[in-house]
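On clarity, I found the account of how folds are encoded harder to follow than it need be. Since the whole study asks how a given chain folds, the encoding of that fold should be made plain. The format is easy to grasp once an entry is in front of the reader. For illustration, here is how one protein appears when written out as sequence plus structure tokens.
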Amino acid sequence: MLIDEADVYIRQRGHDIDHNAVVASFLRTLEYFHGLLFLTTNRVNDVDDAISSRCIATIVYEPPVPEAARRIWKVLAEQFDVKLSDKLINDLVRQFDGISGRDIKELLKLSAKWCRQKEVKPSLKVFVSCSQFRGM
């Protein structure tokens, strides 16, 4: 079973009694669960210790290395029908070093929509401008 974005169930307990009850209930449910459970979160530093202690394995995805990022830019550009030159892709990889595949995807989607709306070609300047809305 997969619980995507499981933050509400696995976030560290604190002063919010309602949230604490959700985590405690989830912990009780885990004790009786007989199967394989995948939980996803972007908040790896905010997982409750009791939840972490019940995990058999943890997989951490690091940001892609430059060559992998280059492939992600190319594949997603084709998927979204955005024309990016090899030079622009190289510039994007350098400019946005260390961002996740998801960030690449969302930045590409946002920039493509902006370019279509303004009827301009994709450029590094456009991507840098749009990146501010992604907090990059």
Q: What stands out?
A: The beta strands are 2-3, 38-39. The chain has seven helices and two strands.
